[in-house]
Amino acid sequence: MTFLTYLISGLALGSVYAIIALGYTMVYGIAKMLNFAHGDIIMVGGYAAFFAFSKFGMPAPVCILAAIIICTILGVIIERLAYKPLRQASSLSVLITAIGVSYFLQNGAQLLFGSDTKIFPVMLTDGSLKLFGGQLVISYLTLITIATCLLIMVGLTLFINKTKIGKAMRACAEDKGAAQLMGINIDTTISITFAIGSGLAAIAAILLCSTYPSLSPTLGSMPGIKAFTAAVFGGIGSIPGALLGGLLLGVIENLTKAYISTQLSDAIVFTVLIVVLLIKPTGLLGKKENVKV
Amino acid sequence: MLKVNDLKVRYGVIEAIKGISFEVDDSKIVTLIGANGAGKTTTMHTISGLIKAASGSIELDGKDITKLPAHKIVELGIAQCPERRRVFAEQSVEDNLILGAYTRKDKEGIAADLKNVYSLFPRLEERKKQLAGTLSGGEQQMLAMGRALMAKPKIMLLDEPSMGLSPLLVREIFDIIRDINSQGVTILLVEQNAKMALSIADRAYVIETGKIVMSGTGQELLNSEDIKKAYLGG
Questions:
Q1: pLDDT in tens, chain B (234 residues)
Q2: Global ipTM
Q3: Nearest by CB: A180 against B71, B88, B100
Q4: Residue A288 confidence class, pLDDT cut points 50, 70, 90
Q5: Which of A153, A156, A218, B86 could in theory staple to A178 by disulfide, Cβ–Cβ 3.0 to 4.6 A?
Q6: CA B90 to CA B108: how far, in whole Å?
Q7: In which domain, by residue range, is B120 found?
Q8: Number of domains in chain B
Q9: Does B63 lie in the same domain as B19?
């Protein structure tokens, strides 16, 4: 029964990774860049929800909405100001810029909110579900997290495959030049991608901060790196890959912590990643890049 | 309809197009022929707005479109069927065609044009649910042309439609180009297969290393000794 508990909480952690990984994978798929500031958007989302709830006393749904809106706008602004001017630049310049944006956000948060750790309030629920006469206890938060992740995956898959904008996004991911010849505005498409990824980061932030309720300016970096790992693990650019990578990573991390060693858990997680990439360099569900002659 | 004036295009310090001028009249078929690397595709991409001109101008019906972004140019009525087809391999045939009509909002018009494309290319209708990447080279060429038609263009830019196709298929594709033209779509055709291109062209320009070196009607160039030697294999 304890195994089941660890497995389920691993799935919840993995769900958060998967939601964050979507942001990395979509931006990579369409803009062909690694947005290393994505983790810090999570941090901003956490603070936004925290202030809305604790300082302004707004109801939880409003706080969630506020965090989503703030992160979405922030994501689009970052893309416009920092990345768009580098559209023709080398990927190394873009990468360095992304790391710069990441530090900018972290230090900005330190300046504005202080570096002390704040306690994230109970915004969603602190109840739990007791099964098998109390042998298996699952918090509602865990269930909400897993359900949210699945809902987002289904919604996003439908959006990408069924809507006009979604199809345009896939066209951009495949061949930007050809997409432009269809009359698709690449800049708009990239903005929409950043908006979606950042909005999802806000949702991830609230789930993450509700599970681990401490808020600090660097809170986004570790989940950011883990989710990036999840995206690569599942195959960067692939939406089902982000889900699979995220869930596997969360489960492996949690089971390692439970049965092997808490200190070694990250080392083991990253070892698994290295092994997977050695065997399948494109990740679990990644496609081979088409080399153009 | 389309007027190119002293167009120059640079890649870094290399001047790929060294000041070319040509005109494409309403409902005509005009071809640019020339060897590999002469600058034909660069010219097409510059007209479509994928590459920015260094100097010179491109006019569509008297309107300067030189500095417009690519998606605006499609909206104004210039659709391109690019070299190597560049269909969206991971989307279905029908979704590719619908993407061709991306800038349009007239639902009925789009449906009617989809019907028209399927009647021009019945094989696409048979395979409409298939992923474009699973089509043969010839079918992909048809899809790329159909996709460009879906934009309801005034002028269609066709870049190397015969590339990699069997002679029989090339003939079929060229017949369809004529059909499309007879529906009132002006055609600018770029080809290495000079013989085929000249045989259907109302007007032709020969481009060599970024410059136009000769022009005339398709028939005139077909009969020219220089052209025979350089492009038609004696």
A1: 999 999 999 999 999 999 999 999 999 999 999 998 899 999 999 999 999 999 999 999 999 999 999 999 999 999 999 999 999 999 999 999 999 999 999 999 999 999 999 999 999 999 999 999 999 999 999 999 999 999 999 999 999 999 999 999 999 999 999 999 999 999 999 999 999 999 999 999 999 999 999 999 999 999 999 999 988 876
A2: 0.96
A3: B71
A4: low
A5: B86
A6: 26
A7: 86-152
A8: 2
A9: yes
Residue B112 and residue B210 in one domain: no
Strands in chain B per DSSP E: 2-11, 14-24, 29-33, 55-60, 63-64, 78-81, 155-159, 186-191, 203-208, 211-216
How far off is chain B from A184, nearest CA to CA, in Å? 6
pLDDT in tens, A249-281: 999 999 999 999 999 989 998 898 899 889 988
Compute how many other C-beta atoms are within 10 angstroms of the C-beta atom of residue A220.
Answer: 29
Q: Please indicate, yes or no, whether residues B63 and B93 belong to a single structural domain of this protein.
A: no
Instruction: Assess whether B97 and B132 both reside in one domain.
Output: yes
For residue A248 the two structure tokens come to: 């596997």
Q: Do A182 and B89 touch (CB under 8 A)?
A: no
A163 and B CB contact within 8 Å: no
* Domain chopping of chain A, boundaries: 18-224+234-240
- Give A151-210 pLDDT, tens digit per residue: 999 999 999 999 999 999 999 999 999 999 999 999 999 999 999 999 999 999 999 999
Name the token pair of B197. 């291109």
Give CA–CA dist A265/A272, Å, rounded: 11
Residue among A160, A181, A285 with most chain B CBs within 10 A, to mutate: A181
**Measuring CA to CA, which residue among A130, A120, A126 is closest to residue A141?**
A126
Question: Which of B71, B86, B103 lies at the smallest CB-CB distance from A178?
Answer: B86
Answer yes or no: do B98 and B142 share one domain.
yes
B39 touches A: beta carbon within 8 Å: no
- pTM score: 0.93
Tell me: do B101 and B204 sit in the same domain. Answer: no
The answer to whether residue B178 sits within a structural domain is: no
Contact A180 B70 (CB under 8 A): yes
The tens digit of pLDDT for each residue in B165-182 reads 999 999 999 999 999 999
Q: Cβ of B86 and A164 within 8 Å?
A: no
**What is the per-residue pLDDT for A293?**
42
Burial class of B129 by CB neighbour count within 10 A (0 to 12, 13 to 18, 19+): exposed
Q: Is B82 on the interface with A (CB under 8 A)?
A: yes
Q: Which of A167, A168, A183 sits opposite B74 (nearest CB)?
A: A183
Residue B230 lies in a domain: yes
Identify the CA nearest to B159 among candidates B198, B115, B197, B126: B197
